[in-house]
Amino acid sequence: MISFAVIGLFIVGIGTGLLFRKKPGFLKITDPLVTVAIFALLFFLGISVGTDPRVVQNITSLGWQATILSSGAIFGSLILARLVTVFFDEDNDKSPKEISGNAEQKKGEWIINLLKNQSLWILLFFIGGAAGGSMNLFPAHWGDAVVATATLYAMMILVGAGLGADPRALEILKRTSIRILIVPTIVVIGSIGGSLAVSFLLENVNAANGMAVGAGFGYYSLSAIFIGQISGSEMGVIALLANIFREIITLIAAPALVKWFGKLGAIASGGATAMDTTLPVIVKATGKEYAVVSIFSGIVLSILVPVLVPFILGS
How far is 257 from 41, CA to CA, in rounded Å? Predict the structure, then answer.
């Protein structure tokens, strides 16, 4: 079963990373390899999509379904964020400044950040695979589950190794209070619950797939790969688009989300991306005292994606 294999390899990776924790060069090796694996997997998913006439013919419908599921996941998280904001007051400014100092950016730099992150390139690899697959430019077996699964397993070892070797995760845990656990908890409950609620509005999305899309928490590459492997190409495309929408909405609307839903609004909306790509706009909208909360929540959610998604889908 995919979930047990993935979790097992993820743990093996973490253990391997811990062995190289004091070697900074290790992360310089694992991080690029993870990126290559992600590009490869989305490329293979694209080929699988391009060779599936059902997906090609229904791409507009899939986009609307992704939008609805993404909106449900975000709104569910935002409602809970509004309710628990009372537990987070201004004493967050006691958080370590060195962790958040690099997150400050000048007005307008979020646009540059958006262009530099992996979203655009992942989309291009996915579109390239889909276009090539539809025109029979690539060997058909490149889109087979065997190739993608082998690459996925290798990637999970690398992801775990990178996490185990990264001293930042343990450092943040040491420096923060127990209440910080509230943030990823509400994102998990709100995202899965919200996407489950709106899935009943969609004829072609069952409850399990709806929850699995919400459990992507904005980690579009990994969640799309898992869901595509387990539930088929159509759901893989929906998961990819839904979680990309989540990141884009956070990048564009962070100040408004904070205004309407409180300081935790942008963090909850960002989900797993709150630790990296959406962190600059979140810090700008909430204040640097919330940087540690944002990073911690993003790390926890990123760890949960490869565990929750296969578990929800029962594979």
Answer: 33
**CA dihedral of 55, 58, 60, 61, whole degrees rounded to 10:** -110
29 exposed, middle or buried (CB, 10 Å; 0-12, 13-18, 19+)?
Answer: middle
Q: Residue 279, Cα to own-chain centre: how many angstroms?
A: 13
- Residues 46, 193: contact at Cβ < 8 Å? no
- Closest residue by Cα to residue 173 from 163, 181, 182: 181
Question: Residue 86 carries which DSSP code?
Answer: G
| Domain-wise residue ranges, the chain | 2-313
DSSP structural state of residue 104: -
Per-residue model confidence as pLDDT tens digits over 195-235: 999 999 998 899 999 999 999 998 877 788 889 888 888 89
pLDDT recorded at residue 168: 66
Q: Is residue 315 a contact partner of residue 1, using CB atoms and an 8 Å limit?
A: yes
CB 88 within 8 A of CB 292: no
Cα of 73 vs its chain's centroid, Å: 12
Neighbours of 132 (CB within 10 A): 18
Cβ–Cβ < 8 Å for 227, 235? yes
pLDDT of residue 6: 63
pTM (two decimals): 0.67
- Alpha-carbon span 257 to 305, nearest angstrom: 24
